[in-house]
Design goal:
Elements (H helix, E strand, L loop, with lengths): L2 H21 L6 H6 L6 H12 L2 H14 L4 H19 L1 H5 L5 H8 L2 H32 L7 H19 L1 H29 L2 H12 L3 H5 L6 E6 L5 H7 L5 E3 L4 E6 L1 H18 L1 H8 L4 H32 L18 H9 L4 H37 L5 H18 L4 H4 L5 H25 L6 H26 L6 H4 L1 H23 L14 H5 L1 H5 L11 H21 L2
Antiparallel strand pairs: 1-3, 2-3
């Protein structure tokens, strides 16, 4: 990268950083730190939601994912995230907002009991910290490949993480929401610029299809259609016959001509699994709920998801199709012009930036990636401490200190969360790709929590059913994570192949959790109402609710019809793109 490139990166992100620090000056109370004083307008929340859902992981890790599985992954955002947002903002989050709740885990205590609240907080802390591990790995690949820093790239990753920590610690959501909005603008311009360059390099969609077919017959149909079957190939060259037999215990068939194990998953099942993942992201993830809770009115909360959904519909394609076009240009990771340690699927995005952009454009793209990293570091850096302080620390251990104590505790936890996420990096630096590794964990822990939120807010399942359902879903997910290792090491199949498959396993995780909750309800009876019970709060948690009630939260002065109708229209367009145009 040239001096011009680095100047663009520093100027754009440095300005946003300084502005975030300036905004932090007004943050003094927990209402400010956790909910931005409930002053956020719809457009700012919408941009912040978009900046969080399309982070550096989407620009790099998800491009590595589409390099492998094709545009079926777009269903995650086109239908899953947009549908989840509309459901969250118009139904699930509404009683939480009206009750003045700070976290979505707090709702689960009111609906199901304290143990479910704590479980949700801990699951979300694990889930979002894993995402930070992906972001750190992403930034390392960009600085190592595009910047040419090699192993020194980790120093750059740490520096950016520390900078994001600085203004998040000071300002909480008040700083994060406004910097996210600015960062989303940088990401938007940079992603469109790179898409235009790569689109030209492959001669558009037709050129991409032609190149993919030249590499392997049928590959274009698999990658360029959301309904294409997923065909995963695992090389077993050099493995003994007994070792191959053990690997086959988790599914697939052996192809002696290529010396590979081939596992095929129907396209409809792949799309369904990614749709569930998108819903889980929007509904379970308090990074999203926290922004909605900071809205100055219910109308702003509902309208915000329309803004984020519209942006996502267009930019999801420009962002993630880059991975598919990259597969057309570099069909084999081992043929990438990179050192051996960087020849992985997730390197495709930074490799394309390195190979096909000129000075100036390259700086703009890297500035967008750095902005995306800032956006996710600060978002999760404010969300996870909120959950751990309010739903675990203040609820179970230190219940009655003054407001400053808990704001300080949140601030102290922020660097622990952001920098502690680096411990997950080795798990993501592998040839399989970050996205598929992440799917393992989502199916095991987050999807069961999605079932709890959906059934809790939309049905009258019994109060005791949630913890039992979570236990069933997480137990199955843990067995699924362990199954490949147990099969290879001990030659024992602890689950049938269909329940080990990542895609069918994601669906099974949701269904098993929901089934367990329904069965418990059949024996113990339905609740009188699905509305959350009033919490008999005490100490700081109860006292912190007072300024929320006094924050002069506005109602739906402009009505609900327009936000709901527009939100449903966004989801309908996503369905048309996913199951019509690109199916």
């Amino acid at each position: 990268m040239s001096i011009l490139d680095w100047s663009i990166v520093v100027a754009l992100n440095g300005g946003i950083f300084l502005y975030g620090m300036a905004r932090a000056r007004g943050t003094k109370t927990s209402l400010d730190w956790f909910l931005a004083g409930r002053t956020l307008p719809w457009w700012m929340i919408g941009l912040s939601l978009y900046a969080t859902v399309i982070d550096a992981g989407d620009l790099v890790a998800d491009s590595g994912g589409t390099y492998t599985i094709g545009i079926a992954y777009l269903v995650t955002n086109w239908v899953g995230a947009t549908g989840g947002w509309v459901l969250l903002a118009n139904w699930i989050a509404v009683p939480m907002y009206r009750a003045g709740m700070y976290t979505n885990a707090e709702y689960l205590e009111a609906r199901f009991g304290i143990e479910v609240r704590v479980a949700s907080a801990l699951i979300q802390a694990l889930y979002r910290t894993l995402v930070l591990g992906i972001i750190a790995t992403t930034l390392y690949l960009v600085l190592a490949i595009v910047g040419g820093w090699g192993t020194y790239a980790w120093w750059g990753v740490v520096a950016i993480a520390v900078a994001a920590t600085a203004y998040t610690v000071r300002g909480g959501l008040r700083s994060v929401a406004v910097t996210d909005a600015l960062q989303s603008a940088v990401m938007l311009v940079s992603s469109v610029a790179l898409f235009a360059v790569i689109w030209s390099a492959v001669d558009g969609w037709a050129g991409t299809a032609s190149r993919l077919e030249q590499h392997s017959s049928g590959l274009a149909g698999q990658l360029l259609h959301a309904g294409g079957d997923d065909i995963a190939r695992q090389s077993v060259r050099g493995e003994s016959a007994s070792a191959v037999d053990r690997m086959l215990l988790t599914g697939g068939s052996y192809d002696p001509e290529t010396d590979e194990i081939v596992r095929t998953t129907p396209g409809w099942l792949v799309a369904l699994a990614w749709l569930i993942v998108g819903f889980a992201y929007a509904v379970v993830n308090h990074t999203q709920s926290m922004r909605l809770f900071g809205a100055k009115s219910e109308w702003d909360m509902r309208m915000a998801v329309v803004v984020s959904g519209v942006i996502l519909l267009g930019l999801n394609f420009t962002n993630l199709s880059i991975g598919v076009m990259g597969r057309a240009l570099f069909p084999d990771p081992q043929a990438m012009p990179l050192e051996a340690s960087l020849q992985v699927r997730d390197s495709i995005f930074p490799l394309l930036v390195q190979q096909f952009t000129d000075s100036g454009i390259r700086g703009l793209v890297v500035a967008g990636i750095v902005a995306a990293c800032f956006s996710t570091f600060d978002s999760i850096g404010s969300t996870v401490p909120s959950l751990l302080v309010r739903d675990v620390y203040a609820r179970l251990f230190v219940r009655d200190r003054d407001d400053r104590h808990y704001v300080l505790a949140s601030r102290l936890l922020t660097p622990v969360v952001i920098l502690g996420s680096f411990a997950f990096v080795p798990m993501f630096l592998q040839e399989r790709g970050m996205l598929l590794v992440f799917l393992d964990w989502i199916g095991a822990f987050v999807v069961p929590l999605l079932a709890v939120y959906l059934l809790g807010s939309m049905t009258r399942v019994h109060r005791s059913s949630a913890m039992i359902g979570l236990a069933v879903g997480i137990a199955y997910g843990s067995l699924k994570l362990a199954a490949p290792m147990v099969a290879v090491r001990f030659g024992v199949a602890i689950l049938p192949p269909v329940l080990v498959n990542n895609y069918s396993g994601t669906v099974a995780s949701l269904l098993l959790t929901a089934l367990a909750m329904v069965v418990v309800t059949m024996f113990r009876g339905k609740e009188a109402s699905r509305e959350p019970r009033a919490l008999a709060g005490r100490g700081w948690l109860a006292a912190s609710q007072v300024p929320v009630a006094a924050a002069k939260v506005q109602g739906l002065a402009r009505g609900t019809r327009a936000p709901v109708a527009l939100g449903l229209l966004v989801v309908a367009i996503g369905c048309l793109l996913s199951f019509g145009v690109f199916w």
